[in-house]
Amino acid sequence: MNKPIIPLIGYRLGLMIAGGISTGLLGGALLFQYVGGLAPCSLCIWQRWPHLAVMILAFIGLRGIMPRLMLQLIFISGTISAVLGGYHAGIEWGFWAGPNGCTANLSLDGDISAMTQLLLETPLVRCDDVAWSLFGLSMAGWNALISLDIIAAALISSRRI
């Protein structure tokens, strides 16, 4: 009998892993904000919503309510979190421009009143600034990377139902 390359885990363990990862990531973000004093940008706030969804879905699935559907929705939420984190990290690394209201896309084209308006509309916490990093990855990069674990847990454990 062939052993699977990736060991299958039960759906309950998969739900606990996904919910635990999201709880840790969301809790860490809140600690950085309220204890560490790092104010989040708008993309940082967007990245929190999929984790809240994963936590709620994992709780519902652990109560025995449609665990397969909850794992599928967790897979989708984890994918959204990874995409948002990767998009935000790409903005921080300068791979692409971010949303106009979140980055400092200032250009002097001779119109001082337009430049003043642009400065007034630019938020204090910009999406293209890295407030914290570890081993060259910002919080957005870590969120994208760790969200892949949520996706993997949902995928692997959904095969056991």
Short overview:
The protein is about 65% helix and about 0% strand. The protein is built from five helices and two strands; from the N terminus they run H-H-H-H-E-E-H. Strands 1-2 form a two-stranded antiparallel ribbon.
Largest sheet: 2 strands, antiparallel
Number of helices: 5
SSE run:
HHHHEEH
Instruction: State the distance separating the first and last CA atoms.
Output: 21 Å
Helix content: 55-70%
**What is the mean predicted local confidence, pLDDT?**
85
Percent of residues in beta strands?
A: under 5%
Number of strands: 2
Computed CA radius of gyration, to the nearest angstrom? 19 Å
Shape call: elongated
**From the helix content, strand content and strand pairing, which structural class follows?**
mainly alpha
Low-confidence parts lasting 5 or more residues at pLDDT below 50?
none
Q: Name the strands of the widest sheet in spatial order.
A: 1-2
Task: Report on this structure.
- This protein is an all-alpha fold and 161 residues long.
- The chain is 63% helix and 2% strand.
- It contains 5 helices and 2 strands; from the N terminus they run ααααββα.
- Strands 1-2 form a two-stranded antiparallel sheet.
- The longest helix has 26 residues, at 67-92.
- The protein is elongated.
- It starts with 10 loop residues before the first helix and ends with a helix.
